[in-house]
Design brief:
This protein is about 10% helix and about 35% strand. It is mostly beta strands. The protein has one domain. β8 (about 135-145) and β9 form a beta hairpin.
Length: about 180
């Protein structure tokens, strides 16, 4: 289960008037590239203003760097944790730009899934990094777009076939296993 930092827990517990939690989404796919051929993820923040924030040190793209999240209206709810069901969420991005729609259209032609990472930042200090100790990454299972709206469903992929515990005990890593 995802954990949060002490600062974010304090904001949720005390609800101070001068602090706002900013929810962001980052969509990544190998076909999301700019004109120079560099990776160009879609980064959005549910706010009225763009957000310049620092990513975590182990982020898949631009690790530890300050990046821009574009202000876009979107709906997103964290998945429920029900027994026997893989977590699944619905994402609705209103006012999607032509760039977002273009990226999604290019991704549809490939079998690789779109990665979706959810992060929370505190508006008072976005350069401190996300306040999710481990940001939630899901994979878009289906998406559809109109001229101004993108609707997607994201889920954890193949959670049933993931090893548990996630550590694999092999003689290379644990030489004491060999007699």
């Amino acid at each position: 289960m995802a954990t949060i930092t002490e600062a974010l827990a304090e904001v949720y517990a005390s609800n101070p008037q001068d602090e706002v939690v900013l929810t962001t989404l980052e969509l990544r796919h190998s076909s999301f590239i700019d004109d120079a051929g560099n990776p160009a993820p879609i980064r959005v923040v549910a706010d009225y203003n763009d957000l310049v924030a620092t990513l975590e040190s182990d982020a898949p793209l631009d690790a530890g760097q300050s990046v821009i999240f574009t202000a876009v209206a979107f709906q997103f709810a964290l998945p429920s944790m029900e027994e026997g069901q893989a977590p699944q969420i619905d994402i609705v991005i209103d006012g999607a730009s032509a760039q977002i729609i273009g990226h999604l259209e290019s991704a549809v032609t490939q079998t690789e899934k779109i990665e979706c990472t959810h992060r929370r930042f505190l508006a008072s200090n976005p350069t401190a990094g996300p306040h999710d100790e481990e940001p939630l990454t899901l994979y878009v299972a289906s998406a559809k777009a109109t001229l101004t709206r993108v609707t997607a469903t994201a889920a954890l992929t193949d959670i049933n076939n993931s090893p548990f515990p996630s550590d694999v005990y092999s003689p290379d890593v644990f030489p004491g296993l060999v007699r």
